[in-house]
Write a structure and sequence with these properties.
Strand content: under 5%
Distance between the termini: 90 Å
Structural class: mainly alpha
Number of domains: 2
Number of strands: 0
Largest sheet: none
CATH class of the largest domain: Mainly Alpha
Oligomer: single chain
CATH architecture of the largest domain: Orthogonal Bundle
Radius of gyration: 24 Å
Helix content: 40-55%
């Protein structure tokens, strides 16, 4: 075959380069960063009504802010290219299975699951990984429990808007409490701590396609610069000594739900979503910080079973007591606090989690009726031999 003229080869190469350039131009035009996003603002912590008692001038005008929807592109990598599913809490868009693994699933590691959870329980009591139960009184001078509740409520909304894993939210609150147990912070920097902690939990630990630093600046209405967010991130990591893998309430709730679902074929989705809702509510309450994550998780299971079947003893099964290692008397105080949260007798002004779990995809568990009181004899020690 005769060799093609040099001019033909040059023309073809030029055409290929032009096509490649056009493709790159088109891709750049479709990048998520080119889309206009709406801002989400926490607002002035000092202007909110439930922190007036902390020394804020009640005559100072309040700034009302609303959280608006943010657009987040679905990642295009191989992990996220699968069919849209939901994670353990029903949240979409992370490429995770929409159901928790069953006890006969290899992922449950049945042969050595006892060793795993024994290790997790050993870690959760490590004082280096635990917040102080009374850090508001002993460490903080300018921050109150009410301000913490406002921050957590806002972070719930941010996590929902960015479709972050619920594990990311629980880790974020854990980092916040641990940092506040060691470092005094002024109220103007509390929101900065919140977004920096969520940045760590999402980018350093949990998420495949996490938000960028500039996204966290944007959701605070650019109250903080990227340099300030990164500086706070560094401070948090140094204070925690880079020990980020502490088990959270969600870690133990996931395990205890599978134990509680043993007799349910198919699994009870109302029980599952209600447990996650109650666990999220517990994050709002400063007085739950003193409880171990496993104890809060067990309390969540106790209360969820009571709400669904009020006339049945919630903790009567040997498997629940054996695997959780808690008896009803040990759970009583925590259960009553979370029950008050569920009935809005505590934290009634915090609405992000309530709005979230009123949605149909969560079986509207936030509006399930519950008796106003839990019978005292339900907290009797009914341990079986």
């Amino acid at each position: 075959m005769a060799e093609q003229p040099q001019s033909v080869r040059v023309t073809r190469s030029a055409n290929k380069r032009s096509a490649a350039a056009a493709s790159l131009t088109h891709d750049d035009g479709d990048r998520p960063s080119a889309k206009i996003k709406k801002r989400v603002v926490l607002g002035e912590l000092t202007n909110l009504s439930n922190v007036v008692s902390s020394g804020v001038d009640p005559q100072k005008p309040k700034r009302v802010t609303k959280t608006k929807k943010l657009k987040k592109e679905v990642p295009t990598d191989a992990a996220a290219a699968t069919t849209t599913t939901t994670d353990a809490t029903g949240e979409e868009g992370n490429g995770n299975s929409n159901r928790e693994p069953t006890l006969d699933d290899p992922r449950m590691c049945v042969p050595y699951v006892s060793d795993i959870y024994a290790y997790l329980k050993e870690i959760e009591v490590d004082p280096n990984r635990r917040p102080l139960p009374d850090y508001m009184e002993k460490v903080q001078k300018d921050i109150t429990a009410g301000m913490r509740g406002i921050l957590v409520d806002w972070l719930v909304e941010v996590a929902e808007e960015y479709r972050l894993l619920s594990d990311t939210l629980f880790l974020t609150i854990s980092f916040i409490d641990r940092f506040l147990s060691m470092k005094t912070l002024d109220r103007q920097s509390l929101q900065l701590l919140g977004v920096s902690s969520m940045l760590i939990a999402s980018r350093k630990y949990e998420e495949i396609g996490p938000p960028h630093v500039e996204d966290f600046c944007y959701i605070t209405d650019n109250t903080y610069t990227m340099e300030e967010v990164v500086k706070m991130e560094s401070d948090v990591l140094k204070s925690l000594k880079f020990e980020l893998g502490s088990p959270t309430i969600k870690t133990f709730v996931r395990r205890f739900i599978n134990i509680a679902q043993e007799s349910n074929k198919p699994p009870n989705l109302h029980l599952e979503f209600l447990c996650y809702y109650l666990a999220e509510l517990s994050l709002l309450e400063y007085h739950c910080v003193k409880f171990l994550p496993s104890l809060v998780a067990a309390s969540v299971i106790f209360l969820a079973r009571f709400i669904i079947k009020p006339k049945v003893l919630p903790w009567q099964t040997f498997s629940l007591q054996n695997h959780s290692r808690y008896t009803p008397p040990e759970l009583k105080q925590c259960v009553l606090i979370i029950h008050d949260l569920y009935l809005s007798r505590r934290g009634g002004s915090y609405q992000a989690s309530r709005r979230k779990y009123k949605q149909h995809k969560f079986k509207s568990v936030a509006i399930m009726p519950s008796p106003p009181e839990i019978p005292v004899h339900y907290f009797g020690d009914i341990r079986q031999c």
